[in-house]
Amino acid sequence: MYRPHEECGVVGVYGHSEASNLTYLGLYALQHRGQEGAGICSSDGRGLHIEKSMGLVADIFNERRLKRLPGHSAIGHNRYSTAGGSSLKNVQPLMANFTLGTVAIAHNGNLVNAHQVRAELEANGAIFQSSTDSEVILHLIAKSRHTGLHERIADALKHVSGAFSLLFLTDSEMIAARDSFGVRPLCIGRVDGAYVVASETCALDLIGAQYVRDVEPGEMVVISSSGLRSFPILNGSKNAHCIFEYIYFARPDSYIFNHTCVNTVRRSLGRQLARESMIDADIVIPVPDSGVPAAIGFAEEAKIPFDFGLIRNHYIGRTFIEPKQSIRHFGVKIKLNPVRDLLKGKRVVVVDDSIVRGTTSKKIVKMIRETGGATEVHMRICSPPTIGPCFYGIDTPTRQELIASSHITEEIRRYITADSLSYLSVEGLKSLVPNPSDYCSACFDNKYPIEFPEKGIEQMELMLA
Ligand code: AMP
Question: DSSP H helical segments within 189-261, as ranges?
Fold first, then answer.
């Protein structure tokens, strides 16, 4: 079944003799955006070539496989999904042949009307190969009555709603498009005269590309031998960039949403958190890695020494990948271990980016107290309570599983057994991002900026279950 559950990374290169190698490196830099599977599709001007598998980028691709991806242009995709949606047929890029030739697609984000559009297409005889919402876009392109591919893509994208940062590849062109809300990031760079389009600038950095600009919300960018052409294809809506990209998802060394530094935002959120929930303590420690910039900001503002009191084993995936509660309980221990010398007899402030179900925080507090020997454990969360699931491309569990959707902070504190627990306020968060009204913060305030079709939200909530 199709699940509204996808976090992903995309990268594409046009006009470079090593297009697929650069795309591979770009995917490597974007591995944090998806660890379930990855793929690259290249064009040698005569046809498309594709290689994809389940697993991590470094394990999937080797010299032999990259050699099977010839040509001067390529697009790649990292996929993240939970159990149920996991299978090779859902790994992107997806490819389709139709009257205008072959086209490949790589999609980051989530459509909110995919279920309805898919049902209509199926009722009219369409046969789907995967359970991803991205395939709906390919069908709409194939079915469009417009003559040229650009017009067909523009037409298809008018019929879907939700979040999409997209890359398409044909024999002769690479095309990028972004939904009119600009939910997920997408930037353009240049290297050796070639064009690069990527989810985050950390992918540009690794391949030595210079940032040029973002793909604008509602814009389609066509890159071909005649250079880059821009087409505004979707009517302007209010921007709704995902605020959670700053909190957790994007890499801190990336610049997203009109080149805003993720690290700078995260650190200033940590300072704000300290102003909002000051506490007398001996040491501030982050939950690595995502809590690090915020913990540094917190320690600076609170004038409490910062140190790495939890050490992370970097050779396992994020605990969230584990589909079962029982494995996740174990996962925290596999991933993190306290440094006793730093924590013993201390009043410890632990900074993490978010609490979802509460499982991680509970384990961490116990670990810091019991194994670490801390006398007090104060949990500080550098985001507001997560009360609403994301339907626009961040993997979140059902509303019922989000501990803050049904419990007040004091109840959560008791559950995680911390001496104190504070979250960042929604106002504090919004005060520190540029143009605060340009963001979607539905996970923190239940205000969903992209309308759902009739029964859309109920349907999506059911599909998360
Ligand atoms: P939980 O144990 O369910 O409360 O999960 C909280 C932990 O998951 C925090 O340490 C976060 O860094 C991390 N986290 C939050 N959101 C996500 C997400 N969408 N994907 C993966 N990990 C996440």
Answer: 201-206, 244
